[in-house]
């Protein structure tokens, strides 16, 4: 069975104290995880080391929410891939729609960051998504496959097996988001899978974990995960409290068990 991925980015939330409490409360839920489940947490930069250290005995990876597109130099305020590695990150979230919308992230900078991350031994978690207008115009699949193709420009077949891709419809994210239906989520990830097959081959395309993100909650998590092209869930708000993340771990484990006996 393919590994199932479940993780959360905390975006720009939490204090030192809240991070400590979160880790303490979630730790018991991360012990004895199914061997088929890989979890991860992506805190703001200042807390990455704290999370990585607190959860080091569990199968929960720590990641960063962004990296600079250069490896070093006069880029005030940026954090490099080497620095991300130094603070204990093994994953790098790249191209989230909030970064694209507010901080000038483009497909080209996403590509630079993907290459740098892979060369540093970090796993990029590339986020792509269609806007509400693109959905309305019926070009969602074209838009997300285009983003994936540019993000992976120059990435070899060997390297791409270290990449994770999250389909996060812009219209589905956050407080005002409308959760994608299971069909819409599956359609987006099936389009990405087929784009990967064209770029590489079907075996490689199958080996790249494809995650869905955007208003994932305890009511839709299981249905989403049962879709053939959804290998994991990337969650915001529902996992910001340890109770929510714990509940999602439980639900995802139930789907893994269900599929193991199918
Ligand atoms: P949400 O965030 O689950 O709160 O909609 C998802 C995301 O931005 O990755």
Automatic annotation (TrEMBL):
PROSITE patterns: TIM_2. Homodimer. Keywords: Cytoplasm, Gluconeogenesis, Glycolysis, Isomerase. Its EC number is 5.3.1.1. Its main location: cytoplasm. Pathway: Carbohydrate degradation; glycolysis; D-glyceraldehyde 3-phosphate from glycerone phosphate: step 1/1; Carbohydrate biosynthesis; gluconeogenesis. It catalyses: D-glyceraldehyde 3-phosphate = dihydroxyacetone phosphate. It is an enzyme of class 5 (isomerase). Gene3D superfamilies: Aldolase class I. The keyword Cytoplasm applies. It is found in: Cytoplasm. It holds the Pfam family TIM. Transmembrane segments: none annotated. This is Triosephosphate isomerase. InterPro entries: Aldolase_TIM, TIM_sf, Triosephosphate_isomerase.
